[in-house]
């Protein structure tokens, strides 16, 4: 495991707090090409994010986590299910979506691709203000956002271009561009994946500080369980379009119950024992298997432990219900026949 989690000792208690963002039964289906069956990229997800909470959405590439994040942002319309914000269903009219996107901001993985190379830092940060018709002091708002993002004195960066900045500084500019609109929730898609190891900790510390100082909530989309351990209050592990385990981060990452979570954790540098090598590739989302969607790669089923627990047939034939998205950190939830039979 990585260094002990930064957030756990002082984690706020979210029990009973109404969610800021809520997803219920969200499906996103993309039509197949040339008569192929449709791809179920998100195949039933419940997820809540509470005010001031940081939730890590974890899974390998292709599991549907970025598509889910785009649906939560209103960039992709769910095929089924609903997304609510601050207690109200998301209205997809142009004016309502514009107002919503002021309150929920996206921070992308690659700052170089997020910033227009022809725009100065000032223009990059001010762009959101101009789109949303900001009526106050633009210069003061840009300076404040840059300062909160750790670029001080902010005026020193106004006339710089992205190519004149380090990778960490570019990511801070992207974060400042989100902060300038004073959002309530950040959706950060692999926010440190493209950064050097020496800078990753600084950006994670910045996100934690913003939560403390501004009360920001965050959904952090990542394949990196070490990142989740260091920043999140709660973790949701996603596989083939559905959340398969969720709970308080220290609970899930120190005592994982789902075989898929165990496999992901086993490859971390400090993980005890040998890495779990999963067989094959994740199934095609257009051809999700019957039963548990992980069963074709499951080390517990292949190793005979599911047979000994009497659940092997259920693993192969019985689908599991969508996990409740409430996730107040008490107890945790798992979509696994073997774990529920007491195999953990």
Describe the protein's topology.
Layout: E1 21-30, E2 39-49, E3 54-58, H1 65-73, E4 80-85, E5 88-89, H2 94-103, E6 104-107, H3 111-114, H4 121-131, H5 138-148, H6 167-179, E7 185-189, H7 197-214, E8 217-222, H8 225-231, E9 234-239, E10 242-248, H9 249-254, H10 259-266, H11 299-302, H12 305-308, H13 312-317, E11 333-334, H14 337-340
Parallel strand pairs: 3-8, 3-9, 6-7, 7-8
Antiparallel strand pairs: 1-2, 1-4, 4-5, 9-10, 10-11
Strand content: 15-25%
Supply the number of helical segments. 14
CA gyration radius, whole angstroms: 21 Å
- Please give the share of residues in helix: 25-40%
Show unreliable segments: 1-10
Taking the sheet with the most strands, its summary is: 7 strands, mixed
For the secondary structure, the number of strands is 11
Principal-axis shape: globular
Strand/helix succession: EEEHEEHEHHHHEHEHEEHHHHHEH
Question: How are the strands of the largest sheet arranged?
Answer: 6-7-8-3-9-10-11
In short:
The chain has 344 residues and is an alpha/beta fold. The chain has a domain at 254-340.
From the structure above, extract its key features.
344 residues; alpha/beta; seven-stranded mixed sheet; four-stranded antiparallel sheet; 14 helices; 33% helix; 19% strand; globular
What can you tell me about this protein's structure?
With 344 residues, this protein is α/β, with parallel strands linked by helices. The chain has a domain at 254-340. Helices cover 33% and strands 19% of the residues. The chain has helices at residues 65-73, 94-103, 111-114, 121-131, 138-148, 167-179, 197-214, 225-231, 249-254, 259-266, 299-302, 305-308, 312-317, 337-340, and strands at residues 21-30, 39-49, 54-58, 80-85, 88-89, 104-107, 185-189, 217-222, 234-239, 242-248, 333-334. The strands form two sheets. The chain has a seven-stranded mixed beta sheet with strand order 6-7-8-3-9-10-11, sandwiched between helices. A four-stranded antiparallel beta sheet has the order 2-1-4-5, covered by helices on one side. Helix 4 (121-131) crosses helix 5 (138-148), helix 4 (121-131) runs parallel beside helix 6 and helix 5 crosses helix 6 (167-179).
């Amino acid at each position: 495991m990585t260094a002990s989690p930064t957030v756990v000792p002082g984690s706020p208690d979210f029990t009973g707090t109404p969610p800021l963002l809520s997803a219920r039964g969200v499906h996103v289906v993309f039509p197949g090409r040339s008569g192929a069956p449709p791809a179920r990229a998100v195949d039933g997800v419940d997820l809540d994010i509470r005010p001031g909470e940081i939730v890590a959405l974890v899974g390998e590439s292709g599991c549907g986590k970025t598509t889910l994040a785009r649906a939560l942002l209103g960039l992709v319309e769910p095929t089924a299910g609903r997304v609510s914000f601050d207690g109200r269903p998301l209205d997809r009219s142009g004016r309502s979506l514009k107002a919503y996107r002021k309150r929920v901001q996206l921070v992308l993985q690659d700052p170089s691709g997020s910033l227009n190379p022809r725009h100065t830092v000032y223009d990059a940060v001010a762009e959101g203000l101009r789109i949303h018709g900001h009526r106050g002091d633009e210069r003061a708002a840009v300076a404040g956002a840059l300062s909160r993002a750790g670029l001080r004195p902010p005026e020193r960066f106004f006339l710089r271009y992205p190519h004149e900045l380090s990778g960490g500084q570019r990511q801070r500019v992207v974060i400042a561009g989100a902060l300038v609109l004073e959002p309530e929730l950040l959706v950060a898609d692999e926010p440190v994946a493209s950064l050097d190891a020496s800078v990753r900790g600084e950006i994670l510390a910045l996100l934690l500080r913003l939560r403390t100082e501004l009360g920001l909530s965050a959904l952090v989309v990542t394949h990196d369980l070490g990142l989740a351990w260091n920043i999140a209050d709660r973790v949701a592990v996603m596989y083939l379009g559905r959340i398969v385990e969720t709970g308080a981060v220290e609970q899930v990452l120190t005592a994982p119950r789902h075989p898929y979570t165990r496999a992901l954790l086993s490859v971390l540098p400090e993980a005890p024992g040998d890495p779990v090598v999963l067989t094959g590739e994740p199934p095609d989302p257009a051809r999700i298997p019957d039963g548990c969607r992980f069963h074709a790669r499951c080390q517990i089923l292949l190793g005979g432990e599911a047979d000994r627990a009497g659940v092997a047939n259920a693993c192969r034939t019985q689908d599991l219900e969508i996990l409740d998205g409430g996730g107040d950190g008490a107890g945790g939830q798992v979509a696994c026949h073997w774990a529920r039979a007491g195999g953990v």
